[in-house]
Amino acid sequence: MTASEQPKTAIVFPGMGPSGFSEVGRFLTLDPFARKRLAEADEALGYSVFDRLRDSEDDYSEATQIAFLVNSMASADRAEQEHGLVPDLCVGPSFGQKAAAAYVSSLPFPEVVRLTAELARCEHAYFAEEYQDAVTHTFVRTPREKLTEILTELGERDEWYDYSGYLDDGFFMVSLRETELEWFKKAISQAGGYSMYSMVPAVHAPAFAELRRRAAEEILPKYDILDPKLPVVTDQEGTIVTTADGLRTMLLDTFDLPIHWPKVVDTLKGAGVSKMYITGPDNLFHRLDRTKSNFEVVTVGPGKRSRPARKR
User: Which reaction does it catalyse (predicted)?
Assistant: First the structure.
């Protein structure tokens, strides 16, 4: 077997989902890897992330985002030290892009902490002015043809919607007005689907081109992004990024392009990946059928037992 034919390993930094302070705070306090990363984050920002997290009531506040980043990087540290992880490729779907940028050394971790904080403030300001009633709804077990019918009805009523994520067969994220959410959830249920959760503010929607512009012109120019030390698979198109320009574009694409996990899986399979480490607080990606059926999956993070799940 040649070197190119050797089975490869990918590291995946998950996207954010709703989480409670008790579990996150406990991990930040007790895990030695998290404590080290938290101290770096505190120094980078000049305030106590833990204190602000404790006082926050927002699932996606600046402090919550920083804590998620800290826990994801701490989980990767643990995977390297305790599992001997040496990945060949890196993926960071949705919010996981930020941890991925730090892991592949395109930006030092303290810089990613500051970037994350600045982007959180930028998003907060944008959604205070635009799309104030937008939500992103995640749901499963919904046939594509049925979803098309539902969205067609929305369009016929001149209601806005955008696809924000293609996660698996019958598993989607759609952004829409909050005033239409209850109707949408009922329609999903009638189609045989199951609603999971709704995110505020909304994410990954083509309508948010102005947010992308603000990030591109006001935030990212402050940071000297470098070529990644290992290839990164974009979560939008599944393309492989090896340059600073490519990584910068990926970070901007997250604002107005939907996630497409099946394309990521196809790219990883095509690259010869057979084992995947998901490092961070993940309640989604390691559970997807497309993930479990194609890779040996090891989860390392808060609430995880750091054990591999069998490949089906």
Answer: holo-[ACP] + malonyl-CoA = malonyl-[ACP] + CoA
